[in-house]
């Protein structure tokens, strides 16, 4: 009879890699790992208690969703979108999200409004507490949850990826206290959704993206390298 232990170990390995990938993704999205930060395999392996091979697999997965850039002989770095790519990301978000609004308004239910309102309450509190990481997280969560209403998993995957990449853009080029989106604009979007007013919702969403891009400052600046052991300590 074959032992189940190799299968169990394999499953445990995948689960650990998934948790590490989620931890790195969270640190990138919440700007704890700024764009352009080097991600040395040895330091990350030590911080997470995993082999360099395991870390390399995690970084490769992050590279497939364009959150990390991997360069031969140089290693892995947090993606750092330039001005052109940044504008393309928000232009694409605008195209996809606006196209999805009709389906969102057709399917929206009271439970969706309650969920979105709850996210906005948490986002507002994060702004009030000047908790940048939480504000960024809830800002992204609002857009992802909004478009999940349409129940189109293909569109949801695209919007989720673009929203995460937008966080990189804001980390790279946003002002010192620009935590994602303005929560007041999110409230306006929610009000328009409750009215099921697609033209108003579309206009507000386009203005929302224009405001974000208009607030970006495309000039270079440097950030100190992160302390991986401190950042990912249990």
UniProtKB/TrEMBL annotation:
Gene3D superfamilies: GntR ligand-binding domain-like, Winged helix-like DNA-binding domain superfamily/Winged helix DNA-binding domain. Keywords: DNA-binding, Transcription, Transcription regulation. Pfam families: FCD, GntR. Signal peptide: none annotated. It comes from the Bacteria. Residues 14-81 form the HTH gntR-type domain. InterPro entries: GntR_C (IPR011711), TF_FadR/GntR_C (IPR008920), Tscrpt_reg_HTH_GntR (IPR000524), WH-like_DNA-bd_sf (IPR036388), WH_DNA-bd_sf (IPR036390). One of its GO terms (molecular function) is DNA binding. The keyword Endoplasmic reticulum does not apply. This is GntR family transcriptional regulator. It comes from Tatumella citrea (Pantoea citrea).
């Amino acid at each position: 009879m074959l032992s189940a232990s190799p299968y169990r170990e394999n499953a445990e390995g995948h689960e650990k890699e998934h948790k590490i990938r989620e931890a790195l993704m969270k640190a990138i999205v919440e700007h704890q790992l700024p764009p352009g930060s080097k991600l040395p395999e040895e330091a990350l392996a030590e911080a997470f208690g995993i082999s360099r091979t395991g870390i390399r697999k995690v970084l490769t997965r992050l590279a497939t969703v364009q959150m990390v850039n991997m360069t031969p002989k140089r290693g892995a770095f947090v993606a750092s979108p330039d001005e052109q790519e940044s504008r393309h990301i928000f232009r694409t978000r605008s195209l996809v999200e606006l196209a999805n609004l009709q389906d969102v308004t057709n399917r929206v239910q009271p439970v969706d409004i309650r969920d979105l309102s709850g996210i906005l309450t948490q986002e507002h509190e994060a702004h009030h507490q000047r908790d940048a990481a939480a504000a960024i997280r809830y800002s992204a969560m609002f857009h992802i949850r909004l478009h999940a209403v349409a129940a189109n998993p293909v569109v949801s995957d695209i919007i989720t990826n673009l929203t995460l990449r937008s966080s990189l853009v804001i980390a790279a080029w946003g002002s010192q206290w620009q935590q994602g989106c303005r929560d007041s604009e999110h409230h306006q979007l929610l009000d328009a959704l409750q009215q099921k007013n697609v033209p108003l919702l579309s206009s507000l969403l386009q203005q929302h993206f224009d405001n974000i891009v208009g607030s970006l400052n495309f000039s270079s600046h440097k950030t100190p390298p992160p302390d991986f052991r401190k950042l990912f300590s249990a």
